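look at this stuff:

>
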Amino acid sequence: MLRLVVRRLLQLIPTLLGLSVLLFLWLNRLPGGPASAILGERATEAEVARINRALGLDEPVHVQYWRFLKRIFELDLGTSTQTGQPVWDEFTLRFPATVELGVAAILIAVVIGVPLGYLAAKRRGGWLDVAAVSGSLVGICIPVFFLALLLKGVFAVELGWFPSYGRLSTGLDATEITGFAILDGVLTGELDASWDAIVHLVLPAVTLSSIPLAVIVRMTRASVLEVLGEDYVRTAESKGLDKRVVRVRHVLRNAMLPVVTAVGLLTGSLLSGAVLTESVFSFGGVGSFIRTSIDARDYPVLVGFILFIAMVYVVINLLVDLAYSLIDPRVRVH
C-alpha cells in the first residue's frame, strides 16, 4: 500500500508542473497583461510600465516562471484586488464552508444513490427501476441554479422550514475553532450551533447533490446489472451461498469499482462547482467568493482557485486509487 501511495504521488509531480506552466502562460497572455487587469482598462502606458517593473514582468520569461513556481511552493498566491488580503488567507477562511457543503452533498448522493441504484437493478423493469431511471434523468437535466431557487422559494420562503441564506442564524453566538461550523459546535459543546449549521446546510446540500445523485444511481444500476450477469455470481447462487454474502461480497464489491471512480470525480466537481449554489444561498464559501472575483476581474484569486481545484483533484484521485486497492487487491500490483 505504501508503495502504491508513493508511486501515485510521484506521478502527480509532472501533472502539477504542467498545470503551473499553463497557468503562467495564461497570466502572461491576458488581454493587456496582468498590469491592465489590476489597473483597469483605462490605465496609461506609464502606469502599466510601472506595475510591470514592480511585479518583475519586464524580466526574462524563465526568470518570471521560476519566481511564479517558487511563490506557489511558498503558498504565496498574491493579494486579492477586491479585499487587499492574501489570496491564501481568503481561501482558508472560506474553504471550510465549501468543504462542509461538498461533503454533505456527496454523502446524500452516495447514501441514497448506491442503494437505489442497486435495488433498481435487482428489480429491473419494475416500478422502482422506472422511477429511479426517470428521476435520475430529471436530476441530470434540471439546472442547479433553477433547483436552488425552487427549493429556496418553496421550503424557505413559502413554508419556512429551512433558512434561506447563510451558514448560521444571525445573532447566534457560536465559538469558532476550525471554521467548520458543525464540528466547532460539537467540539465546544454548543450543540445548538451544530444543529443550526445542519439546518442551514440542508437546502444547499440537497441542491448540490442533485446531479451527483442522478449519476451515481445510473452508474450503480448499470454496474450491478453487468455484475449480475457474470458467471461467478450465478455459481455463488447455485452453491446456495447466503444471499447477503452474494450481495455484498460478489455483487456490490465488484460493482463498486466504476462507482468509486464516479464518486471521486463528482466530489472534485462539487468543490469546484458550488459557485451557483453558494451564490443563491449566500453560503459564504469559496464558490460565492469566486463569483464576485470573476465580476471584479480579480485574477490572483482566479489563479489561486485553479491551483486549489487542481490540488483537490490530486488528493481525490489519490484517495480513489487507495479505495480501488482496498476493494480489489489486484490493483496494487499494477
